[in-house]
Design a protein that fits this description.
Number of strands: 12
Mean pLDDT: 87
Number of domains: 3
CATH class of the largest domain: Alpha Beta
CATH superfamily of the largest domain: Periplasmic binding protein-like II
């Protein structure tokens, strides 16, 4: 295959087709007609001497050759886009840039108030568009549609840039009237009823099973190592809901410490150290290689770190 005869647009078509696995959706992504995309697929099949996508009962499925090509094509296109980006200056005082940010409500509650305070002081015309993990996916971040995602991540695509914002311990948030406050230990913790809260990564979550400890996360895995299990009465994906429910006399919410300390000066709550060891968590920010050298993005990343370091 003579690389000088390859139409670069075909590689872009291939990249989108392998993500969408649908000619019509791929055409929509590139804002071209469905016949034009079909013709592109036909040319790709000729170029690689491979069907690329095969129609099955489950829809269009990539061939083995196509699956092998996908990561290499994605890497080539990302590097090319990054190389073609021009240098530009960024003036925060006059900028009207909109930064699109995916943040869990844990990050939104603990980090963003400090970040927004800084932005209001030095960049009064900059706007923040905050999205939830269910609103976006990894492709949105990789394509630069989302400037940054801030959350706890188990696994990340290798192409992403990332930085740890902070490490956080866990604390227990209880109503000040909860009868176990005065005798808080492992036995009373296990005898209590609990609010479970967690949301990691992207996409819409599924229902939780109290018996599936491996999917319950850090707190329950730590208890399982002790051969113990807590009595979870409420599952929620929202930290503010969990904190509000902790006002019930019989419920305990075990949360990242920075979230629990939002209520440290509220006499209705008590914040206590868990009666067992729970490993710390890491809050990270991730972003696309397409934005890594963008002047405004560099400024924004530095501002996030400064806000996080306020303590």
């Amino acid at each position: 295959m003579n690389i000088s005869k390859i139409d670069l647009n075909l590689l872009i078509y291939l990249d989108v087709l392998l993500r969408e696995k649908n000619v019509t959706r791929a055409a929509g992504q590139l804002n071209i007609t469905q016949p034009a995309m079909s013709n592109g697929l036909k040319r790709l099949r000729t170029l690689f001497n491979d069907p690329i996508l095969v129609r099955t009962s489950d829809g269009m499925v990539p061939t083995e050759r196509a699956r092998a090509l996908a990561p290499a094509i994605r890497k080539i296109l990302l590097e090319l886009e990054e190389a073609l980006q021009g240098e530009e200056e960024f003036n925060e005082l006059s900028s009207q840039r909109v930064f699109r940010l995916m943040a869990s409500d844990y990050a939104a509650s603990t980090l963003l108030p400090k970040l927004l305070k800084r932005i209001n002081q030095i960049a009064p015309n900059v706007t923040i568009d905050i999205m939830t993990p269910s609103d976006v996916n990894f492709h949105d971040v990789e394509a630069g549609k989302i400037d940054m995602a801030i959350n706890r991540f188990d696994e990340l695509p290798q192409s992403f840039h990332q930085k740890t914002i902070w490490r956080d311990s866990f604390s227990c948030l209880l109503s000040a009237n909860n009868p176990i406050v005065s005798k808080f230990n492992l036995n009373t913790y296990l005898s209590a009823k609990h609010v479970w809260v967690s949301k990691t990564g992207f996409g819409v979550g599924v229902g939780m099973d109290p018996k599936d400890v491996q999917k319950l996360g850090w707190v329950d895995e730590a208890l399982a190592r002790l051969g113990k299990q807590r009595n979870i009465k409420v599952f929620t994906r929202n930290y503010h809901v969990a904190m509000q429910l902790a006002l019930e006399d019989e419920l305990v919410a075990t949360l990242p410490t920075r979230a629990a300390l939002i209520h440290k000066n509220d006499a209705n709550y008590t914040v206590l150290k868990p009666p067992f060891d729970i490993p710390d968590i890491e809050l990270k920010m991730i972003w696309s290689p397409l934005l890594h050298h963008d002047a405004s993005h560099i400024w924004f990343r530095q501002l996030v770190i400064e806000a996080a370091n306020e303590g």
